[in-house]
Design a protein that fits this description.
By secondary structure, the chain is of the alpha+beta class. It contains eleven helices and ten strands.
């Protein structure tokens, strides 16, 4: 029996092959035991909790740790044998490739989970998740680029020379694509800082409309006239953007004028009339009403109040209701609104 087990094949005895197989099978059995006991218990515990971090860690163990452990068992068992240099080098390359792939995959899973948690904490808006997908694509390209360079460097390629060549070419490409890169970084700023979101009504300079799409280079806005306005992301981040959707209440200032024939007692009544009118209308907060100035043809009253809503249509409904109520009160008290008039005095000479 000993003579049979000591027979040599490809620089290893049968006993060496048997030992390698036993090590490999023992490691697999140990991994399976862990999977059916420890991981099963962890899964039961994760189902009782409301957090998602434990579910995420459990999925990492299943998708990353277990496959790597199986490959590690194979690698350890094979390394107990005397292998041909070519075969040993091939296994080493496979090991580097597997470690690189699983590490890059782990990095992608971590980034993806981080973005999901960020979107969940900030808002449940689907548009934000769609925007984050664009950033994920860029990060994915970067991660796999580093993974490829790491793999090539570890199997003997002089990656530093390639990087130096790419660096010189990258400077030229960077100068040519400077505007694109500025828009891309502005896109990151819009997504993370969130000065506006899809569906917000914003004003940029003389342009106004509702945000329809936020892309990696441009943002599209639907104007009140119906046409689509397209802005580069850099233009938006460099401009003063007025976001009306986030306005909690709207401050309204308006003036009205009465004729110079209006008597003193009626002038004293007008602020109280306006105050009562606004206070009796829902979704408003009265601020002030004053006889503010003498106009060219009228006595001017200035009124300030708040509409407790950011909806423009709601504001117009409230303003219309106020105007109608003031008109009714003034008519019942014979208070006349002023309009532009001129008095011409003619001096007749004989």
């Amino acid at each position: 029996m000993n003579e049979f087990m000591n027979q040599v094949f490809f620089s290893n005895t049968l006993f060496d092959y048997l030992k390698a197989i036993i090590i490999f099978l023992s490691a697999l059995i140990f991994i399976k035991i862990l999977q059916h006991t420890f991981l099963k218990r962890l899964k039961q515990l994760s189902e009782r909790t409301k957090t998602t971090i434990d579910d995420f860690l459990l999925s990492l163990v299943k998708r990353i740790a277990l496959p790597l452990a199986c490959w590690g068992a194979f690698y350890l068992s094979v390394n107990t044998l005397v292998l041909f240099p070519f075969l040993k080098n091939l296994i080493r390359i496979f090991s580097v490739a597997i470690i690189t792939i699983f590490t890059a995959h782990l990095a992608m899973l971590l980034v993806n989970y981080g973005f999901k948690m960020y979107a969940h904490k900030r808002t449940d808006d689907i548009s934000l998740e769609r925007s984050l997908q664009g950033i994920l694509r860029v990060i994915k390209v970067l991660i796999w680029s580093f993974a490829v360079m790491f793999f090539l460097d570890n199997i003997g390629f002089k990656i530093s020379t390639v990087i130096a060549g790419l660096g010189i070419g990258g400077i030229a490409v960077g100068l040519a694509a400077q505007a694109i890169l500025k828009d891309l970084f502005s896109y990151f700023s819009i997504i993370f800082d969130r000065p506006f979101e899809i569906g917000d009504f914003i004003i940029i300079g003389d342009y106004l409309g509702t945000v329809e799409y936020i892309g990696a280079k441009t943002t599209r806005i639907r104007s009140l006239g119906g046409e689509q306005l397209i802005f580069s992301n850099t233009d938006l981040t460099d401009s003063r953007v007025r976001n009306y959707k986030r306005m909690e209440k709207r401050r309204v200032v308006f003036q009205l004028g009465v004729t110079y024939d209006t008597g003193y007692e009626k002038l004293k009544e007008i602020p109280k009339i306006i105050t009562d009118v606004i206070k009796n209308i829902e979704n408003t907060a009265f601020d002030r009403a004053h006889f503010s100035s003498y106009g060219d043809f009228n006595l001017v009253f200035e009124v300030v109040y708040y509409v407790l809503s950011s909806d423009y249509n709601k504001y117009m409904d409230v303003q219309q209701e106020i105007n109608l109520a003031i008109n009714k009160e003034f008519s019942s008290r014979a208070i006349e609104f002023a309009y532009p008039t001129q008095t011409l005095y003619v001096n007749k000479q004989t």
